[in-house]
Amino acid sequence: MTGSQVGELDVHRPAFPGDMRPPSFTLRDFLIAAFFHRRVVVLGALLPILVGIGASVLTKTEYTASSLLLVMVNREVATQNVTDTGPAVLSIEGLKQVESEVQIIDSADVIHTTIEQVGLERLFPPSRFSFLAELMGGDISTMDRAIERFRKNTRTTVLSGSNIIQVSVTNPNRDVAIKATDELVKAYLEYRRKVFDNPTASILMVEVERFKSDLTRTDDDIEALKKKAGIIEFSQDAVLAANQVDSVLQRRRQVAERKAAVSAQLATAEEEMKALPETVFDFTQKSDASGNDDDRNILTRLLVERDRLATQFAPGSPPLREIDRKIETVRQVMAGPEPRLYSTNRDVRNPAISYMNNMVLSLRVELDSLSRQEDELARQETSAEERLATLRSAETRLVELNRQRETLSEGYREYLRRAVAAKVEETASKVRASNVRVVEPAGAAVTGRSMALPFLAAGLFGGVLFGAAAGAIASALRTGFIQPSEPERLLGLPCLAEFGDGPNALETVRAEQAVGSLATLLLDSELDGRPLRALHFLAQEPHPDIPAFCRRLAEEFATQRGMRTLLVNLNSPSRDTRSDTPAEAKGGLAISSTIVPLLWSADDSDRSPFLSVRLPMTEGRRMMKELEDQFDAIIICSSAQAASSVKHRLNRLVDANILLIRAEETRKPAAMRLRSDVMESGGILMGFVFMGRKYYLPNWIYRIF
Predict the structure, then answer these.
(1) Domain count of the chain?
(2) What is the pLDDT of residues 335-376, one digit of tens each?
């Protein structure tokens, strides 16, 4: 830092919070921040530069072998169907077909075959750090990593406006690059033949067997369903079941009608039977024969018997004598007195009752028979309905199975026909020409390229980016200020003056001019139409330059402006008061004159009533009014270490508060806290003075910007 830079000062017009406009970020601010953090910037930029230099030194020349393939998609190579079982296919989307060929070339199977043919160690020779790649690869196999590396070294593109595919393989070894390209094309053609091999016949035969198996299984299901449901012929069984249900229903209706008729007859017969008399007149008989009078009949029979015996026996025989004796006995009985006459009247049981009893009994038997018959018919109806329900439930499944069988039968016939046709088509496709031709082999076009310069340029570019990023991060993490524009943007306050850093920064000619300019700025500023008289300079931490600055400003007011000036230094006691002049008590302060004319300073400020923490605000205003009546200018210098109540009272009593910010020492949160304290206490902030600024840029840059 030169001597001319130490006392450099910028003076701004006074601005209050309503009119503040923070300055924008300029290129000069960027350069200052970059030079301030030059070590971080250089360290951040050096790393990618070294990496780029190392990569450019270690890189090898890469050889790229290219092969050209022609994909024919015109009408001449359109796929024709030999068996005429379908329409001819002509590709009208050639670009899609070419892109499909590119995807086949880049497939993992083709690359795997190529690596096996060329050799893994020949393609990717092991290096000293190969074990690190294996450790970092985890569960990935060596072949998988090789396929990924080969895919990165391979480029397959379609030349613009054509159906030509360019296949290129890059490798540090020229012969290996040519060999890998040729093997890649060869593996692609072989794999393509497998991919486009038409396996229709085998697929169709598999489908034929599947249809056959499904058809057999369906037939078995149909037979099992018929056996389970007892179906011989579904249509006839359904008609028989429906007829049976109808017949049983008709019979139930007839039985119900007969049962109703019998019940009515039975009820009528029982009622009529109750009305019949128990007995009825039969006949009347009068007779002179007594009961059991059978003499004549006996006599007649005995006479007939004697005549018969007389023919058989001689007169006087015992049988004749016996029969004669019986005849004599009967005649004696008959010769007795005449019997009395008899009269008989007979009433008999009413025959209608018997008839009615028989009828009622018959009707009851018939009614019981009808009830039993009705129960039997109900059972038969239930059985018939169950049979019909079984047939109905089986009908859906049977119809589905029959429909499935018909579908399977049609599919079986169709696939069998197509399988035979596909077999013929496969035989014809084996001798058909391929629609991919190798136009140029790999050995005809080999190019070499070195990445040394690109790596070096990338390292330099990365160094610039990393350096800028490191500087930006360091600036964002920095808590101090290095130039006045930073507190202006952060605090929203104008910078009233700035001073450089150094042991004698306030003793230079420029510093004296800066103090004079600041004094002029303060005297020209007005508050509510009156000039500023009481100024409060507030710093975050005590520093020897802060009391010296306030002293120089007070001397400027006293000597150069001829103003009665009072300096109240709350950071350190005054050392230039006249020992022979006693201190006077004015406005609650012990004031003594100094060796400088018209300059007074406050002594023993710690015990002054004006600076007591218990002083009320009204008394403080009175004391400040008394001081303003005695002095033309009052400069109070304090720091954040003072008592909060005293500091807040001073912020409100003075005409303006000015912050003192030390470059690289005052932290951003502390400055924000100072500003908040002044604003919260009701004080007026005029701006800040930036002290201890260092100049990091060369002089010629300051002159340009």
Answers:
(1) 3
(2) 766 655 556 666 667 777 778 888 888 888 888 888 888 888
Residues 14 and 76 grouped into a single domain: no
What gap in Å lies between CA 77 and CA 521, rounded to an integer? Answer: 94
User: Do 563 and 614 belong together in one domain?
Assistant: yes
Shared domain check, 591 and 497 = yes
* Dihedral sign for Cα atoms in the order 130, 133, 139, 141: negative
Q: Which of 587, 550, 552, 555 is nearest to 570 (CA)?
A: 550
Same-domain check for residues 671 and 599? yes
Same domain as 158, residue 187:
yes
Distance CA 665, CA 330 (A): 186
- Say whether 97 sits in a helix, a strand or coil: helix
Contact 261, 367 (CB under 8 A): no
* Burial environment of residue 286 by CB neighbours within 10 A (0 to 12, 13 to 18, 19 or more): exposed
Q: What is the pLDDT of residues 298-312, one digit of tens each?
A: 888 888 888 888 888
Q: What pLDDT was estimated at residue 401?
A: 77
Encoded tokens for 199: 């396996």
pTM summary value: 0.47
CA distance 91 to 87: 13
Q: How far apart are CA 31 and CA 696, in angstroms?
A: 9
Secondary structure percentages of the chain, helix, strand, coil, to 5: 60, 15, 25
User: Do 626 and 689 reside in the same domain of the chain?
Assistant: yes
Query: Strands 656-662 and 685-693, how do they pair?
Result: parallel
Where a domain ends, among 128, 162, 196? 196
Domain identity same for 47 and 11: no
Residue at 188: amino acid letter: Y
Give me the half-sphere count of Cα atoms (radius 13 Å) on the Cβ side of residue 9: 23
Please check whether residue 691 is in contact with residue 675, taking contact to mean a CB–CB distance below 8 angstroms: no
Residues in the chain with pLDDT values less than 50:
1-20, 75-92, 431-433, 574-575, 577, 579
In the chain, the amino acid numbered 542 is P
Between β-strands 685-693 and 495-500, what pairing exists: parallel, antiparallel or unpaired? parallel
pLDDT digits (tens, 9 = 90+) for 535-591: 999 888 888 888 888 999 999 999 988 899 999 888 765 445 454 555 677 767 888
Q: Is residue 580 domain-resident?
A: yes
Which of 166, 196, 226 terminates a domain? The answer is 196
- The 10s digit of each residue's pLDDT in 581-628 is 556 777 678 888 888 899 998 865 667 788 777 788 888 888 888 888
Question: pLDDT value at position 633?
Answer: 92
Q: For residue 413, which phi and psi values (nearest 5 degrees)?
A: -65, -40
Q: Which domain holds residue 700?
A: 3-24+481-704
482 near 33, Cβ under 8 Å? yes
Q: Give per-residue burial for 69-85: e unless 16+ CB within 10 Å, then b.
A: bebbbeeebeeeeeeee
